[in-house]
Amino acid sequence: MKSNFLYIFFLIFATSLFAQTTDSLVVKKEEKVIVVNDSILPKEDYNPLAPAKAAFYSAVLPGLGQVYNKKYWKIPIIYAGMAAGVYFYKQQDDDYERFRNAYKRRLAGYTDDEFQGISDDRLVNAQKSAQKNKSISVIVTIAFYLLNVVDANVDAHLRQYEVSEDLSLQPNFDYNQFNAKPQYGMSLTYRFK
């Protein structure tokens, strides 16, 4: 136990020796960032119809709005979500038909269905559960379709958003020389032209 405290004390002492140098106390550098406009990529003109166009494309064919916005990586996510909804709908529909047919056969007097040992009430509950899951699958598919349209619209809006140096939020780290402690903060800079 004593050796653990000794190791911790040594670690704290060693790091404090390396952390405080005279150069860091006296010299304070100011860095300036120079922003150079890139002449390789031309700036796009503002197109007020671009968001509506992207949303329309996505409504016609899911993923086409993302192609219009050049966000190709989103297309597999959209189709995977919609395909999962359709897959689970089909699976629950098949289960619903199996439960329903077995229940109908029992009402007709047959006892040779695949659900031997399961009561009629359990078959009715299984039908209701499968029907509910089918509805949820439809909702998930529609939600991915609508999310596709909204994403294309919002992405087209944000693509035209101009980010300038007039407003910037930057972390600020300063060293207080009076009490020898670091000071952390955020600085919000807004320049008027």
Structure commentary:
The protein is mostly helical. It has a domain of 116 residues. It contains 6 helices and 2 strands, in the order ααααααββ. Strands 1-2 form a two-stranded antiparallel sheet. A hairpin with a 4-residue loop joins strand 1 and strand 2. Helix 3 packs antiparallel against helix 6 and helix 5 runs antiparallel to helix 6. The longest helix has 40 residues. It is elongated, with a radius of gyration of 32 Å. About 3% of the residues have low confidence.
Q: Describe the largest sheet.
A: 2 strands, antiparallel
Mean pLDDT reading = 80
Q: How many individual β-strands?
A: 2
Overall geometric form: elongated
- Give me the secondary-structure category: mainly alpha
Pfam family, one: DUF5683
Organism: Aequorivita lipolytica
Keywords: Signal
InterPro entries: DUF5683
